Amino acid sequence: MLQATVVHALAIRNVVPSLVLVVVVWYAIRVDARRAALYGLAAGACEDALSAGTGAGWTIATGASAMVASTLSRGFFADSIPLVAAITVVVTLLRALFFWIVMALCGYPQGLGAMHFHEALLQAAFNVAVIVAAMVILRRFETARR
Fold first, then answer.
1. What pTM was computed for the model?
2. In the chain, what are the domain boundaries?
3. How far apart are CA 29 and CA 52, in angstroms?
């Protein structure tokens, strides 16, 4: 609900950070690919329920992106800020790609690819800023609690 109602006030060039994707990445880097995909599918279904005309685009894109994030993080520490930032960038771009492939298959015009790619790049930067800020804030609270 926060993504659909409040976050749009933060838009720069009609692009907002995707809190849904940030939460999905946060979860996916800590679990196996199957659980990550299920969580991503559920998060994407919630986004599709609140979006008009996307069909199952967000469900498919977020589920596949969660699986990719989980696979990329295998063998690494989930609390590594550079690793999480890199995974967030990759997954944001892949999610946009998956979404627009699904939308193109459903008949959405394909001529806006360059604009959507530029928006995805800006959203990737926003998503990295959000996830890094969340990690730093949580580390401060953990340190203060000890």
1. 0.90
2. 16-145
3. 30
